[in-house]
Amino acid sequence: MKRVITYGTFDLLHYGHINLLRRAKELGDYLIVALSTDEFNWNMKQKKCYFSYEQRKQLLESIRYVDLVIPEENWEQKRTDVHEYHIDTFVIGNDWEGKFDFLKEEGVEVVYLERTPDISTTTIKEDMKDK
Ligand code: C2G
Prior knowledge:
Blueprint: E1 3-8, H1 15-26, E2 30-36, H2 38-45, H3 53-61, E3 68-72, H4 78-84, E4 89-93, E5 109-113, H5 121-130
Parallel strand pairs: 1-2, 1-4, 2-3, 4-5
Bound molecules: [cytidine-5'-phosphate] glycerylphosphoric acid ester.
């Protein structure tokens, strides 16, 4: 049973997120999503989410590729998460290319996947403003 983990905010869920989650699941048998909490988003990523953590969690849990959603509360937890959840592969979009290579020291495969072009939560918000 190959276990995969990814991290993110996943606000205003869109097909770029789904493309990432689908490819992440293809890398193993069980996919865990560490979902950024509202506090982490605001304090550490300066992101104000449209949907709350619970609403974003509910959306993610309805996706066929996702097996478990856990909270992402800080930048440091990845190093312990990979042991606590017996992770084989860490995966994230290549906008983070190289940023999490340290996880290889924990015996984890690190994969950066191509981002889906021309879609982002920010774009959606901006486009909706102009409607
Ligand atoms: N993503 C993608 N294509 C897009 C938009 C997003 O592949 N057009 C991917 C991102 O690369 C990321 C995931 O979807 O892997 C979630 O994106 P965000 O919610 O923007 O996550 P981010 O704020 O990058 O959080 O500790 C890591 C951070 O929590 C990552």
